[in-house]
Amino acid sequence: MRLPFQISTLTLSILSAFSLLENAHGQTIQVTQTDQAAVSVPSTSDEKEGTNSSVEQKSKNANRLKKNEALKNDNIQRVVIDGGRTDDDARRQSTAAKLIFGREELDRNGDTSLGEVLKRLPGVTIGGRPGRGGDIRMRGMGNGYTQILINGERAPRGFSMDSLSPDQVERIEVIRGAVAEYSTQAIAGTINIVLREDYKQKNVELKASLSSEQNRLAPNVSISYPGEIGNLSYALNASVFQNKQRDQSTTNSIETAADGTPNLLQNEYDETHRQTTGIHFTPRLNYKFENGDTLMFQPFIMRSHSVSDGVSLVDQVYRSPTAIEPPAYAIANNSGTADTTFIRSFGNWQHKFDDNAKLAVRFGGGYGKMESSSLSNQLDVNSNPVAVVTVSNSTIDKTLNNGGKYTAPIGEGQTFAVGWEMEFGKRDQSSVSLSNGKPQFQDSGDDLTASTKRFAVFAQDEVDLSAEVSAYAGLRWEGIKTSSSLAGMDVGNSSIVWSPIAHMVWRIPGESKNQIRMSYATTYRAPVLNDLIAIPSISNLNSPTRPDRIGNPLLKPELSKGIDIAFEHYLSRAGLLSANFFVRNINDLMRRTTQLVNEPGGQRWVSSPMNIGQATTKGIELEAKFQLQEFFPEGPAIDFRSNYSRFWSSVDDIQGPYNKIDQQPPYTGNIGLDYRIAGIPLTLGGNLNITPGYDTQSTDTQLNFTGLKRQIDIYGLWKFNPDLQLRLSVNNFRANDYVTSTEVNLGGVNRLDYVTNKTYTTFSLRLEMKL
């Protein structure tokens, strides 16, 4: 258990050493975001709109630079302009805490999924086993606390970021604090995925990769084709891929009665083979009118088809006649198919007024269709039929959205903005679950109709109070209404949230490379649609640790108030050292609880969500990245990067000692480097990602354990010339088993499931060409 202390000590030592070396050398949620229009880089919204800084922005930046120059001491340093703004420059100038990661980070390790890129970013973790992706989390907080956006719009329901290829992405923005122009459903923060927008790209880019996992080949080909026709510029981006995977897991179960006598001893082995084929198409069009107006339109189209087959073997070593759940099958042969289609469009029109004010109007819509079916033939130990279980699901999601922002300068060094946002969504779903031809739940086969309406207005003001201090204040009102109808029963849920937000940056006088950030925000977490509607999810092996799942239409959103304080030190070369502290107080925490329920077919374990009380979470995030030649000019060309995050939390209404935020590890850590070998065009690099094992007391009756995740990725890059390069990468080099367990003590029964999941090493060869 010394590892967390060692990593934190190492990072702090690095911070100190680098500093010495350089010297010697209702529900109210309010969101405030600094409008980046007041600084030298565009705001998040300006960047996604594809515009440059306005005249008033440039004037403000020039004045700020003059004031900063006047504050410098006599030791003037020589600055070399490299011809472009770096990601660190954008981070430094932003008033809100925003981390930006561009094509360099996306291309570094030759990853084939976006989740593999995200897991290395400061404070970001990925749920699930290594190499299989999962939900995206920030600051150690579980699923649902992090807001995921695509081009500034909420990702469609059912969309998985792991299905998005890094080749389709221009940059990733990690926003630690809330901002008024985005929804404040971001207690942990926001991750904005900005799709490719290479308007000025001169060459056609072709990338082809071939990955291998357990000798199962996965090809991927992507192309980016830019061009211009008069006032129209465009970039056509597309990729085609195929993945073949095998998953293996074992589950050891022990169940005892209240007096300690055994009810059940059971071992289960599961193996699944899966093949997925898909295509992504993300064209981007930008038109400039004669009066200077611009119109951007970018559709995103994804189509995938997946087939799977597998086997489940269950060995019931002992089963008491008094056990609640029915006897398990001995073998189940499983098969399934899934077809997914997503179409999402993003549009933006901008008009600039004579007084340098600007109006930007966003519009878009989406269509998603997901169809899946599965078949399970279950047999007993003598190969006699036990049950034939069929499940089919058809879901169609439709969305429309509109929003806008009016931005106006107020004198020198101040920018005011107001805006609105509307989103309408509708879901039509039918789920049929049959066992031996009989429905497994009451409403099996009935059509579910659900709709959501979200409307928000906001105002924000950013001002340079002095050459050293910039501040931002914002206020957002947001209302959400959800309604659903199933089997003639109508259910509704609504919430209103006011969100005030404030950010401030203090550039320490005489220390042009040092600055301190502070922010406050009220944010929230709304219940997801599946947690509100009553359509159940049936568990084939129903037990206290594998219950059926159902929704709760009376759920209230979680409300949070939080502060962030950060110190940042920027190096002369590309690099920085930073430390960020945060704390969040959360009300109406949502948790799932399990109960034994009497159903027409007998007793079953059922899990449903509910609001349970208050929680507090806090943490510190350390980051260090630099070029070794910053401190040793004659040293090797090594780029070093590391981050370490430490988290603490507690839930008031759950007994300790593990009563913390769901799925929150005690710490996460990353360390990596890139070495450009002198004399040959070869770069070698790697990354170590660690998330330790931890226990979570989910409820007073349920304890969950998540095992250690230690993932090593390495790569080699050979640049034949500026237009041709070859990359070899190895992900999850050690391929350690991923272990989880669930223990439930409920209704006179104690049940422990211990699950071991296999993980695998993936080898990838990637050729990148500019034609």
Structure description:
The protein is mainly β and 771 residues long. It has one domain (3-770): TonB-dependent receptor, beta-barrel domain (Maltoporin, Chain A). 8% of the residues lie in helices and 58% in strands. The protein has seven helices and 36 strands. It has a 29-stranded mixed β-sheet that branches. A five-stranded mixed β-sheet has the order 1-6-7-4-5. Strand 12 (284-288) and strand 13 form a beta hairpin. It is globular, with a radius of gyration of 27 Å. It starts with a helix and ends with a strand.
Question: Which key phrases capture this entry?
Answer:
771 residues, 7 helices, 5-stranded mixed β-sheet, mainly beta, Maltoporin, Chain A, single chain, 29-stranded mixed β-sheet
What is the CATH topology descriptor?
Maltoporin, Chain A
Whole-number mean pLDDT = 84
The total of helices stands at 7
> β content, as a range?
over 45%
Structural class: mainly beta
Give the low-confidence spans.
1-84
User: How many structural domains does the protein architecture include?
Assistant: 1
How many strand elements?
Answer: 36
Task: Give the CA-CA distance, first to last residue.
Answer: 52 Å
Rg computed from alpha carbons, rounded to a whole number of angstroms: 27 Å
Report the CATH superfamily: TonB-dependent receptor, beta-barrel domain
